[in-house]
Amino acid sequence: MTTSAHVPVAIVGGGQAGLSVSWHLSRAGIAHVVLESHTPVHAWTDSRWDNFTLVTPNWHCKLPGYVYDGPDPDGFMTRDEVVAWLQGWLQTFEAPVRTHTRVSKLVQRGEGGFALTLETPSGAELLTCDDAVVATGGYPLPVIPAYAGSLDAGVVQIHSEQYRNAEQLPDGAVLVVGTGQSGAQIAEDLHLAGRQVHLAVGNAPRVARFYRGRDCMTWLSDMGLYDRPAQQYPGGRAAIEKTNHYVTGRDGGRDVDLRQFAAEGMRLYGTLADGKDTTLRFEPTLRSALDYADSIYNSICSDIDAYIEREGIDAPPVSRYEPVWEPDAETTTMDLAAEGVTSIVWAIGYRPDYRWIEASAFDGGGRPMQTRGITSVPGLSFVGLPWMHTWGSGRFLGIDRDASHIAATITSGYHESVLQLAVGH
User: How far from the centroid of its chain's Cα atoms is residue 143's Cα?
Assistant: First the structure.
């Protein structure tokens, strides 16, 4: 193993969050390096399906020194448009990125700072730094249940991050498991492609795409919800740890209505509990899950109504969602072969994986213990996590603010150290 030169700051991860910290550090004159295992912002091309669109309006897209200024601020960029937008941002500055460099270990050093083990095309290296910023994303490991391995080997199984389009799956019906943003939109994508879709519905809430003349997320932004610190958010930690509301920006944006899909032939079930060979068992939770999602939908509309009335805004009249379909009975078992299901798309999320970091910065669930990205471990910070500071954290809307805070904290500590050295000298 060779030893690299010491750098003041190492940023692990070259996505938009890590590069945003780099942007601010460069302007502060702080030497640093961005360590990226692939290429910058590669996840947008590698982990999104062909018909992916943003679920937040284009005007939410703000990065350091760069905002969306295209012709459709209230529209929703496709995957390829997001990639092009990000490439335009990368051309506005020169980040010190080392591509194809994976950090396999980050260790807190007794004398201060950190030692990073790097895996590079030319071999292993050891890099030391004073400050380390972890920008690898909040949940990098796809979740697939343990019983998936006991299902019929003839059924193709993929995780949602591997899904690209209906054509990649074998002919036949498809079971999508999970109704977070990815699961609901992938189910829609397959449904629109003419596939028979079976959908295991989870406990995710939903939100109207448009309400009273505007996008709901624009109303919520005006109401200050994206700026409210996590500690002050209604419902506390239980509320912020729930799955994101499902909605879509496809074809100009619309609601994702699972009941309407069912009326059109999609088969809905409750939470998938377990399975073996070709037999699956579902919990009888479908009706309650649909009712809950609709209650959140209408509750958000009520919050917007209250804001409109409080501010005296002239807007179209109040409305509420009324169910267009109800389940006759709860189906709790399925035979994959009998239903012609030839593939399963697991869309039940991701989990954190910080086993490569040796530092006392994590809770019992393996999640970073941080305040606005700053941990109690001197010099160790995180960026790009959902709810790191506000609802906007982890989204384009909040990245610049979070990155700026991390960079300012590092810069302040760096300048203080320089001052102490000067006084001591």
Answer: 14
Dihedral pair phi/psi, residue 240, rounded to 5°: -80, -15
Question: What phi, psi does 256 have (nearest 5°)?
Answer: -105, 110
Nearest-Å Rg of the Cα atoms of the chain is 23
107 DSSP β-pair partners: 115, 358
Residue 317 is encoded by which pair of tokens? 């009249």
Orientation of helix 16-28 relative to helix 396-424, angle to 10°:
40
d(CA 352, CA 49): 22
Residues of the chain by 3-state class (helix, strand, coil), percent to 5: 30, 25, 45
Quick one: which of 216, 255, 220, 219 has its CA closest to 234? 220
The per-residue pLDDT for 237 is 57
| Segment 310-315 mean pLDDT | 98
| Closest to 160 (Cα-Cα) out of 351, 386, 353, 349 | 349
Residue-wise pLDDT for 363-382, tens only, equals 988 889 999 999 999 999 99
Which residues does residue 98 pair with via DSSP β-bridges, in sequence order? 35
Chain segment 182-198, per-residue pLDDT in tens:
999 999 999 999 999 99
* 27: its two tokens: 């302007």
- Residue among 146, 195, 190, 66 nearest 348 (CA): 146
Domains defined for the chain, CATH in brackets: 2-140+352-424 (3.50.50.60), 144-346 (3.50.50.60)
The encoded tokens of residue 177 equal: 């498991």
CB atoms within 10 A of CB 149: 9
Q: 58 with 74: CB under 8 angstroms?
A: yes
